[in-house]
Amino acid sequence: METVSEKVKAESIRSFESTIRKTERAFEGMARKGANTKLIEKRLSAMRIGLAVLENAWYQRPVQYSSEELADSHKTLAGLLPSVEEIYEKSKEGSPQRTLLERRIRSIELALGAMDVQIANNH
Asked: Which domain covers residue 10, as residue numbers?
């Protein structure tokens, strides 16, 4: 896993926490309406695992996920990247939204790298 500054670590953790909160609110809204929540549940789980893996890599917080859970989460997060990057490309230069998207992309990329290490260590 690459070395990152404390600032990037903090921004990445906050980005994941923010994304998780937003996704939890979306999930609750969908559940109230009786909508199918399978996809959002999968994404929420992947984000929680991504955050846990980053906290493990940087702060040695315990994480206990199977290789299968890590691989599923890796696939889900990797699948989210293109849509986040597309929104980023359409965002206005210098806007707060663009900054948030930059951080989200970076945090997902870092989580994917940390998951790769975890998966390799689990084998």
From this structure: 6-122
